[in-house]
Inverse folding.
């Protein structure tokens, strides 16, 4: 039994009805968004952040949201995660409308949201504790998740004694504690230096593939978007609209060397062109 | 007490950490000596100046006692001072412990419901704004001129800083951490004991720092007002007796004992704070660019 299989045999608290509903809709998109509108009331004014956005990420594929800063990428991601309300339109994950936070979606915060008073292991255990897993389940899963991200041996370390890259791995291990089919990442690696980020990018793709989970990430970096995605969604300056969906026809698993591939450069160039045309 | 400064969470955390744990210690070439030596030097200068000025001015000891007069007065009645210190210490500790327990529990209850908090917290402020000199005689009337009145007075002094400190900590959880618990569908009880309460510990300790100083003040004021004498008389009673007898050197000795007790309380709380919230380093939970920790990536 591989480590991943072990992770997946342990069921979460999920109602039977929910399970049936999921299995009944096997072919729908991982994420589908139709005519989404979102705004904020700032003083007396209504500021539109997302305007009539329509996009879809097919199941089994992973994507990136890229666009100028302040364009509402993070808001969009939080809407998909059920952390934010929206006024108009339809948002669905795996065919089920998003009405609030849900168990089949994992979220990685920009600031990682680790609990500073807990050790590495205690942080990874948290989802198990909150979801009411048994002690043995938690211990077993936490051990697997930590070994997947290469943190075995660091269980007892307090967070303040480990590097930014390692904290990233802790957050990733915690994300793997639950059985999710979609991971949403809000610029999670943006605070790392280039070299560390590339290492974490590759590790993340490897782990996501092993866990058979799709992901959708927000990023500022075009090369990172191309490296990690099958589809890159280019958003306009605010209020956000979808400017283009750009396919990345590069094989998986992706390696460091793929960044030297001609297709990589073509796609990177294409995205930059789309962004530049709409920025000016 | 419930100060709401419009500062960013991280700067608030920095100030708070500095307040709870004292300023960051710097490892010096001369170690502890370089930190302690100026303190000792300052004390020596103050005491010597005090001695020289009072003696040079030929001030009578019952008005301006010199340090030597204070020491002589202690030597004359050492047991009385010592037993008074112990009684005041006992009252301060019992009242403080009760205030810690009650303050934290009431804060948790109020934090579960914003409506409860809005309904009752403002009235808790009344506890803080009513002068203890006005409350103390009432307490003595209600609870009798006995040591339990002193406990109640100490409790009344210490309860509010504990309540407001804890409540502030429970309500100042980082938005992302709240979202995280929301995502995992955590119950109110789980959120309270796995997120809000641990998050509140530095705030509880800063409330405790304030309360520990107030507990000694409360005990002495209580004893002074209640006039519990004899074997149950603490420093407050000793102060009133010494003042009425114009035994000024002994009065100063009792006052300095109270001050020292407050300082020791403060020091103990600071030490506990350092040990408990070593994690409370504002930079610890955010990934820092160019961070080169144990394992680069």
């Amino acid at each position: 039994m591989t480590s991943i299989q072990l992770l997946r045999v342990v069921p979460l608290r999920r109602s039977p009805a929910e399970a049936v509903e999921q299995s009944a809709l096997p072919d729908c998109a991982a994420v589908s968004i139709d005519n989404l509108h979102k705004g904020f009331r700032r003083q007396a004014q209504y500021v539109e952040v997302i305007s009539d956005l329509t996009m879809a990420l097919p199941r089994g594929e992973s994507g990136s949201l890229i666009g100028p800063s302040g364009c509402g990428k993070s808001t969009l991601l939080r809407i998909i995660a059920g952390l934010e309300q929206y006024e108009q339109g339809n948002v669905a994950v795996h065919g089920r409308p998003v009405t609030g936070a849900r168990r089949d979606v994992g979220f990685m915060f920009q600031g990682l949201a680790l609990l500073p008073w807990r050790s590495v292991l205690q942080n990874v255990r948290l989802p198990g504790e909150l979801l009411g897993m048994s002690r043995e389940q938690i211990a077993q899963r936490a051990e697997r998740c930590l070994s997947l991200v290469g943190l075995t041996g660091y269980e007892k370390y307090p967070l303040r004694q480990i590097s930014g890259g390692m904290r990233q791995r802790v957050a990733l291990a915690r994300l793997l504690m639950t059985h999710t089919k979609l991971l949403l990442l809000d610029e999670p690696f943006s605070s790392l230096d280039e070299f560390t980020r590339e290492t974490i990018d590759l590790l993340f793709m490897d782990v996501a593939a092993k866990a058979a989970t799709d992901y959708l990430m927000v990023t500022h970096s075009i090369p990172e978007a191309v490296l990690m995605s099958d589809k890159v969604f280019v958003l306009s300056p605010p209020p956000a609209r979808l400017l283009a969906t750009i396919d990345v026809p590069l094989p998986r698993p992706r390696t460091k060397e793929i960044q030297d591939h001609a297709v990589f450069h073509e796609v990177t160039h294409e995205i930059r062109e789309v962004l530049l045309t709409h920025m000016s | 007490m419930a100060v709401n400064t419009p500062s960013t969470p991280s700067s608030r955390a920095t100030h708070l950490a500095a307040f709870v744990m004292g300023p960051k210690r710097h490892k010096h070439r001369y170690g502890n000596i370089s930190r302690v030596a100026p303190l000792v030097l300052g004390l020596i200068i103050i005491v010597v100046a005090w001695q020289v000025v009072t003696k040079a001015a030929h001030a009578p000891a019952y008005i301006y006692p010199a340090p030597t007069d204070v020491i002589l007065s202690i030597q004359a009645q050492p047991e009385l001072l010592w037993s008074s210190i112990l009684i005041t210490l006992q009252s301060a500790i019992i009242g403080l412990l009760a205030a810690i327990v009650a303050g934290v529990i009431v804060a948790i209850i109020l934090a579960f419901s914003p409506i409860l908090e809005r309904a009752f917290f403002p009235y808790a402020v009344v506890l803080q704004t009513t002068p203890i000199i006005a409350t103390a005689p009432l307490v003595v009337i209600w609870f009798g001129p006995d040591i339990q009145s002193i406990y109640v007075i100490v409790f009344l002094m210490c309860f509010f800083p504990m309540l407001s400190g804890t409540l502030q900590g429970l309500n100042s959880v980082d938005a992302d951490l709240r979202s995280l618990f929301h995502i995992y569908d955590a119950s109110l009880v789980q959120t309270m004991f796995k997120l809000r309460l641990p998050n509140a510990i530095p705030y509880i300790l800063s409330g405790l720092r304030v309360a520990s100083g107030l507990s000694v003040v409360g005990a002495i004021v209580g004893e002074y007002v209640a006039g519990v004498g004899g074997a149950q008389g603490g420093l407050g009673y000793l102060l009133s007796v010494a003042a009425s007898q114009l035994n000024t050197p002994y009065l100063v000795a009792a006052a300095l004992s109270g001050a020292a007790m407050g300082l020791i309380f403060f020091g103990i709380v600071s030490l506990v704070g350092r040990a408990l919230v070593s994690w409370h380093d504002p930079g610890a939970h955010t990934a820092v660019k160019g961070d080169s920790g144990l394992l680069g990536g």
